[in-house]
Every structure is written in C-alpha cells, then in structure tokens.
Amino acid sequence: PAKLHMIVSPDFRRSGEQPPILVLHKARLAPDEILHERGFDLTTPMRAILDAAASGDASREMIRQALAAGKSRGLITRRDIAAALHKSGLDPWLHKALQAA
Fold it and tell me: Fewer CB in 10 Å around end: N or C, the chain?
C-alpha cells in the first residue's frame, strides 16, 4: 500500500496534525498479534495481511502474493492460517485465498 498504516490503542489521542501518508487504525491487539523487532512493536504478518485485506487498501492479488510469500518464507504457519480461517466476518474471497495458501 502507498500509505503507512499504524494501529494505536482506542484511547490514543493525537496532539498534532497527521501526516498525509499515515493512516491510523484504533484497535486492541492480542499479545500473539505483536512481534518485538529491533526496538519496534509490529503486528504479525498474518495480522498485517488481514488488516490490509479488511481496509481495502491492498488489491486481492497483493493479498494473495503476501500470503504466498509469508508462507514460503516461514513467516506464516499453518496454525496462523487455521486461526485466520476461524475469524468471523472474513470476505468469501479472503476465506478462499487463505484455504489456498
């Protein structure tokens, strides 16, 4: 996606103007959805893919490529895919893409 997406807690309040490249999403993340890398907290690859699919900012082909790349690089496991398939509200095309991954 052309913009930087960040998840912040629902009680987060901005004190300045938001840069146009930044999109903030408010959500509470489960501990297993967070990675700690090089001093930064990041969402797991699967959470990032699901968020990108839900936001509509990434094409379906981009989501399919991300799933394939994540799986081939060992960043997405069968357990991650199984857990994602059990989430409610998945679009049918995403459900199918997860099953094919």
Answer: N
Amino acid at 29: L
Scan for tokens 């994602």, then name that residue. Answer: 84
Contacts 24+ apart (CB under 8 A), 73-79: 75/45, 76/45, 76/46, 76/49, 76/101
Greatest Cα pair distance, the chain, in angstroms, is: 44
Structure confidence by residue, pLDDT tens digits, 2-24:
788 889 999 998 888 999 999 88
Angle at the Cα of 64 (from 68 to 56), degrees rounded to 5?
Answer: 140
Kindly report, residue by residue over 26-60, the tens digit of the pLDDT.
899 999 999 999 998 899 999 999 988 988 878 99
Q: Are 32 and 44 in contact (CB under 8 A)?
A: yes
* Cβ density class 7-18: b for 16+ within 10 Å, e for less: beeeeeeeeeee
